[in-house]
Amino acid sequence: MAALKKTIAVLPGDGIGPEVTRAAVQLLEDCAAAFGHRFEFREFAFGGAAIERFGVPMPEETLAGCRSADAILLGAVGGPKWDSLPLGKRPESGLLGLRKALDLYINLRPIRVRPALMDISPLRPERLKNCDFEIVRELAGDIYFGAHEIHGEKSAARAMDIAEYSAMEIERVARYAFARAAAHKRPLTSVDKANVLATSSLWRQRVTALAAEYPGVALEHLYVDNAAMQILLRPAQFGVILTSNLFGDILSDEAAALAGSIGLIPSMSRGRDGEPALYEPIHGSAPSLAGKDVASPLGAILSASMLLRESFGLTAESQAIESAVDRALARGLRTADITAPGATPVPASALTAQIRAELRARETAL
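The chain above was modelled as a monomer; its predicted structure follows.
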């Protein structure tokens, strides 16, 4: 492929966010140098770090920088330092605001067990065989974006959260999931709670109706409680899982356990074609680990790989990074979150350095 020139907005965020995004940017720089591309990185304040500097979790300058970029790389946001703030002013509200402002209504999380890490998964190897699926989560609707109210005090208090979906919101994310399943020749599993919830009933109706447009995709419906069980019992049965915002949030974190650590899973949030997508590891900001050189960079590095593949169409470059990750892990390097009992973990920076060395060695050999 011809050399590309792209701009990437970097939002380090809070806690371990700056550390893991730094590792991801280093791999992107190495990849650009190896393949002849040019990536410009523009860093912006976001989350708690932005509250400290600007009084708001998403300054206008940050939003403008994200809008003008070709892709966005985020670290993590939040921490107990800001937990006393009202819900709408906490660091996490900046993330919800960014999703809304950029109309990021699709979240994609690949669940893949790295070959060298089979032994740290809580499942037996025979259950993990051929475990490689994706979760497509609707990201702009459901209970997260409905009304939230608390009335009264103490034992007289009542709280309410409103879940809402329109047919349009369901259909647009379902079309993406159907198209992805068709392109990769995978089955599609739609997850809901249609026997109890009105939003889920509408969800199942619209997904079922759309299935006629994708005759090559095998569609199955599962209730969310059964889906949670099946992810642990037979994960290899899944190709693409489609589900709502709330259920997707929960199931994707559960599925991350299959890989052995939430710190291993990347994600993409995207909207319409041509608009910048947001890439981030699914782990939190882990402020207690910040500055100790122990936080795994793998989720962020694999998010960078996903960025190359999904936003820039750079499949070979993406594969080069993932192969470098696998070779470094095959050498036995482990951060604390993925270290077997009795083994000695390496600093996060040492793992990053080895992945960079593996990438450079591969390109030198070619």
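The first strand starts at residue 5 and ends at 13.
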